Amino acid sequence: MTLKTAAEGKEYIVKEIQSDDEELNSFLFSLGCYSGEPITIVSRMKNSCVVSIKDGRYNIDNQLADAIVIYD
C-alpha cells in the first residue's frame, strides 16, 4: 500500500521509498521520511496531500505519495 491510497487521519509506518531518484530519496530523508518512521495524512487536495512527519507538516504531490510505501 502506498501513501497515495492511505486514509486521512490514520498514522502509518513508512516501509520503504520506491524510487531510483537519489535526489528524491535525499529530499525525503531530510524531511524525516524514511523506513520505520511514522507518517500521517492530515488532509487531501486534488493533486496533493498534506502529511505530518515528526514535528512538521509538508505538502507533497500524488506522484511522490505513490513512491512512499507504508505498512497497512
Could you tell me the number of beta strands?
5
Structural class: alpha+beta
The largest β sheet comes out as: 5 strands, antiparallel
Q: What is the ordering of alpha helices and beta strands?
A: EHEEEHE
Strand content range = 35-45%
Shape: globular
Q: What Rg do the Cα atoms give?
A: 11 Å
Strand order of the largest sheet: 4-3-2-1-5
Distance between the termini: 7 Å
Describe this structure in words.
It is a single chain. With 72 residues, the protein is α+β, with helices and mostly antiparallel strands. 22% of the residues lie in helices and 40% in strands. It contains two helices and five strands. Strands 4-3-2-1-5 form a five-stranded antiparallel β-sheet. The protein starts with 10 loop residues before the first strand and ends with a strand. The relative contact order is 0.33.
Entry summary:
The protein is of the alpha+beta class. The protein has two helices and five strands, in the order βαβββαβ. Strands 4-3-2-1-5 form a five-stranded antiparallel sheet.
